[in-house]
């Protein structure tokens, strides 16, 4: 049996870096809350994160980061801090955009000032953790055994008609170059885990996502004489139902996947047979073969359900599309002892994969990367709402936990290498 020894980084003065990080994090506890509330009150939609990007870049410059690149992939920011000791390069990633969700009925003192826009995915929290991480790292710069890049990525939630955005554009614009990190880590807020806890998976973490636009084409006729036309609406109704049989009849039943048709629009009036129906769907899978197979099965299904009614169809797979987020075994298992040391073994949970999707997966395609769930739930405070809901909130007690854990993950990675 091989014994694994975990080296806990120590400062020049002989103090454990864990202790220094804990002290520096405690010193900024109120600042973390203030920062999170400021960002929460000023949420910005994907590709519109100008204020957020400016705030981040200014903070990093004040903290003395060696390099601060702003305007990456729109409003993204990449900050680099070089430690006083030699070592590898590691990255931390956070997303910075908000959602088109109105929170005017959500009664908190830090309510969104941008009507109709809300940080409902906890990105206000993970930005704050990343800024706290930046601050703590700046305090231990001379003892830092390597270089840390903090990547603040815009447009994770997606925009409907742009193919290249978010993580893809950041990578294209060199976020993982000069210097090139050898690993990348990230948190996503989890309303299923109590504040103070961290969740992880080994292997699949979140699903792949693909978006499909479907147009069913028929022919207009008087509603009283449907036999003279081709009813795109009735055809579409059958297609929606038949598409649901892909999962139940054509995919291995132990292979999770879901195809949801989320919108359907068609027809002009009650007394005219509709000649055109447009539908939009999203596909989530947990393996690349299934993901590919769906494209064929969707086409075959539409061919069947349209031809039997004499209609035709078009599909286009545009919009958000990225692979599944999956945590590599070696790096994930090497990270777990760090989590256990910082938050306690009882607060580290191996969790099941979820059907949500994250373009962090694109960073994972480039270099080993681990995304973890950062617990933000607090039932006693009534903080229990799910991601992307109007009353989603985070327990701010999770902020310092996030900072300490993120710092330890990076310090341990740099020390291990
Ligand atoms: Zn989200
Ligand atoms: Zn998110």
Please characterize this protein's 3D structure.
This protein is an alpha/beta fold and 417 residues long. It has two domains: 17-205 and 324-416, Zn peptidases (Aminopeptidase), CATH 3.40.630; 208-316, Alpha-Beta Plaits (2-Layer Sandwich), CATH 3.30.70. Helices cover 34% and strands 25% of the residues. It has ten helices and 16 strands. Strands 1-2-4-3-5-16-6-15 form an eight-stranded mixed beta sheet, with helices on both faces. A hairpin with a 3-residue loop joins β1 (67-72) and β2 (76-82). The chain binds zinc ion (2 copies). One zinc ion (ZN) binds at residues 95, 121, 123, 156, 188.
Short descriptors:
disordered N terminus, Alpha-Beta Plaits, four-stranded antiparallel sheet, eight-stranded mixed sheet, elongated, binds zinc ion, 2 domains, alpha/beta, 417 residues, Aminopeptidase
Side by side, the strands of the main sheet go: 1-2-4-3-5-16-6-15
Which ions and ligands are bound to the chains?
zinc ion
CATH topology of the largest domain: Aminopeptidase
CATH superfamily of the largest domain: Zn peptidases
Percent of residues in helices: 25-40%
In short:
The chain has helices spanning 17-27, 29-41, 50-62, 123-139, 166-172, 232-250, 288-307, 329-343, 360-366, 398-416, and strands at 67-72, 76-82, 85-95, 145-153, 184-194, 198-200, 203-206, 208-217, 221-222, 257-266, 272-273, 276-285, 312-316, 325-327, 348-350, 369-377. The chain is an alpha/beta fold and 417 residues long.
Write the layout of secondary structure elements.
Layout: H1 17-27, H2 29-41, H3 50-62, E1 67-72, E2 76-82, E3 85-95, H4 123-139, E4 145-153, H5 166-172, E5 184-194, E6 198-200, E7 203-206, E8 208-217, E9 221-222, H6 232-250, E10 257-266, E11 272-273, E12 276-285, H7 288-307, E13 312-316, E14 325-327, H8 329-343, E15 348-350, H9 360-366, E16 369-377, H10 398-416
Parallel strand pairs: 3-4, 3-5, 5-16, 6-15
Antiparallel strand pairs: 1-2, 2-4, 6-16, 7-14, 8-12, 8-13, 9-11, 10-12
Bound molecules: zinc ion (2 copies).
One zinc ion (ZN) binds at residues 121, 157, 387-388.
